[in-house]
Design goal:
Helices cover 71% and strands 0% of the residues. It has 356 residues and is mostly helical. The radius of gyration is 29 Å and the shape is extended.
């Protein structure tokens, strides 16, 4: 039976659509099967560890899972998911036999091989696994990846070192910051624990870190370490503009009332950006002693400084709100009256009339 050309085109198109549908369906079936196998493996990790004493651990099952992870990217992804859920590694008497099982499985050798391999995904995944499993010498093993040519691998290594949460890890991150290997923001957001405070303070005093001292100041504010207060106050008083900005921000995050006077003095800084950060820092401290200085700042020449001053007054509770109401009715500067009215409207949810 002959087909004319138009009908033949239609038939071919329908056949191609059917084939495409079958391929999509087959891909979905394969993906669903892989996800089911992955869920089962993750459950087996938890089950093999047991929930009681060391005797409850199933060493054979653990070793088989670790061996699978040593040779399979999917197995490593499963292990990462279990680690992210907090199920492993165990933090009790089961930890030592657990680590011993990992060693004999060849998992650490597989990670070292991945570090030398061509796949960026494998290198980054190996770094995260080494750190999260708490394997020995993690900092030394991961450090070379901080200069990896792939930015995603460097990012994974940065995250892995933060997971190590040790002074050695902090120094590796600081050297990467100094050498420009990783974006400063990515390093600062990882140096947030007490484990990083000592190295940060030492780097602030060390030669070679001057060009990143403002970033060191910002990171110090995230550590919560009281030893950071003095060096940060010194930067506010004598640093360059970028150092003063970040040191003000850091003192606010540190939240120590004893440094409020430093930030109050910084409200008169020549730089509008410093004044704004000082006001924001006082807002975080909720320091009532700053009311008068913040009220003066309501007539600042920079609108964003006035905005930060108003926000800070709002944060001070009744005392700050009363100062804003006085600004609305009696401040000689029209811009100050308007900004105070906006702040009160935000606080109460209703418009506030500004004095003429």
């Amino acid at each position: 039976m002959a087909f004319d050309a138009p009908n033949l085109v239609v038939l071919i198109s329908l056949a191609l659509l059917a084939l495409l549908g079958m391929l999509v369906l087959a891909k979905r079936v394969l993906r669903d099967g892989a996800e089911r196998r992955s869920r089962r493996r993750r459950l087996r990790w938890v089950t093999a560890l047991g929930s009681g004493p060391v005797e409850d651990m199933r060493y054979g099952a653990l070793r088989a899972l670790a061996q699978h992870a040593a040779r399979s990217a999917a197995g490593q992804e499963d292990l990462l998911a279990v680690l992210a859920a907090g199920d492993v590694p165990p933090r009790d008497a089961r930890r030592e036999p657990f680590e011993r099982t990992l060693r004999v499985s060849g998992l650490r050798r597989a990670f070292r091989k991945a570090f030398r391999g061509h796949s960026p995904a494998s290198r980054g995944r190996a770094a995260l696994l080494w750190a999260r499993l708490g394997l020995p010498d993690a900092e030394q093993a991961i450090a070379p990846l901080m200069s990896d040519p792939d930015p995603d691998v460097r990012s994974a290594a940065t995250q892995a070192l933060a997971t190590c949460a040790s002074e050695d890890a902090a120094w590796t991150l600081l050297h990467a910051l100094r050498d420009g290997l990783v974006e400063p923001e990515r390093v600062v957001e990882r140096l947030t624990g007490g484990w990083a405070a000592g190295p940060l303070l030492a780097a602030l005093r060390a030669d070679g870190f001057d060009h990143v001292s403002s970033w060191l100041a910002e990171a110090l504010g995230l550590t919560g370490d009281p030893r950071a207060e003095g060096p940060l106050a010194n930067l506010v008083a004598a640093g360059d503009e970028e150092q003063r900005i970040r040191a003000c921000r850091a003192l606010g995050r540190l939240g120590r009332r004893s440094s409020a006077s430093v930030l109050i003095a910084a409200l008169a800084d020549p730089s509008p950006a410093v004044r704004a950060q000082a006001a924001r820092g006082l807002a975080e401290m909720r320091e009532v002693r700053s009311v008068d200085a913040l009220t003066v700042l309501m007539s600042d020449s920079a609108w964003w400084v006035r905005a930060r001053a108003a926000d800070a007054l709002r944060s001070l509770g009744d005392t700050g709100l009363e100062a804003l109401r006085e600004c609305v009715h009696a401040h000689p500067d029209a811009f100050a009256r308007e900004r105070a009215a906006e702040a009160l409207a935000m606080e109460h949810g209703i418009p506030v009339e500004v004095a003429a």
